[in-house]
Amino acid sequence: MTVQASNKTLRVLGFMTGTSLDAVDMAVLETDGHDIIGFGPAGEMKLDPDTREALEYAIEDAFDWERDEEEPESFDDARAAVADAHLAASLSFMAMNGVKTSSLDLVGVHGQTVLHEAPTEEQVGRTVQLIDAQAVADGLGRPVVFDFRTADVAAGGQGAPLAPVYHAALVRYSGLSGPVAVLNLGGVGNITLVRADGELEAFDTGPANGMVDLLVQSRTGKRMDENGALARAGTVDEAVLADYLSHPYFKTTGPKSLDRFDFSLDAVEHLAIEDAAATLTAFAAQAVALGVGRCSEAPKEVIVCGGGRRNPALMDAIRSRLSMPVTTAEDKGWRGDSIEAEAFAYLAARSHLGLPISFPGTTGVTQPLTGGQTVLPGDE
Length: 380
Prior knowledge:
single chain; 380 residues; 11 helices
């Protein structure tokens, strides 16, 4: 993989809001579009209940949204709510860390995913990330790069995952040599293999935190299985696990992608919450093991980032299924809670410089593809 750089270092504020609807993550990154030059501050702000409610309405409407229908009205409400959350988070974050907007060259915003449909033989995919990027640009007075996935999907790609090119930059920054894998455990798991020759392979492994989060939210009102306590107290239902793993998704090689709602909780409805959590945790771990097994080169190490690395039950289940060392982002000196926000800062810089952000081995596009739209303060 040839990744060009510029001779200009950009200072970029990146944002990410995950499918857990938990928080706005923020990070400042300095990059020339190829190498990581430096790290600025990072942080998060929890989403307030009203913002989460607006997003939940949009997600519900997205389920029933047919391709030939007009966009649901709830999408605009959600765009405004997400933009407001980003502005509030960024202004507080910058004040707390002494970051002036004038010191930023760009802002990169991912927006909130409410719909992701992988392409099929019959039709291209669909992907929707909601945010009013113009409002963010006007509020911060800086150019905003957004909408990173649409061009890839329109070109027949999966639209995900997009972080692999940044994972490769982290691997270079740490002086690691391939093959090495970076595993992100969010609502959905995704893996990046940086091969020995530097080329990239990437795909979604399967559900990670998403199904367990939905289970716990539906039965207890809490946000997640804290420290994997429910899973540790339960017993895996092997029949249900085998049924989940029989899904055709696990018989295909990457590039491939998922939405967190592509698998249903129906199969664990009859189980006690502890057994259901144990079964879904085992499902996530086995999906990772199957994904690692489908890499063209066996990684010497798997480095885990994302919220799932904080779940000891999930991490133990993954380690028990893999033969190579499984480490965490922190073991490499990386900021495990900020990698996705950093990634979208990096992707914003690459988009601004006209460099590709997706590749045949990561999303399935036929050639490296640039992406991301830019809006300027005051644009109509």
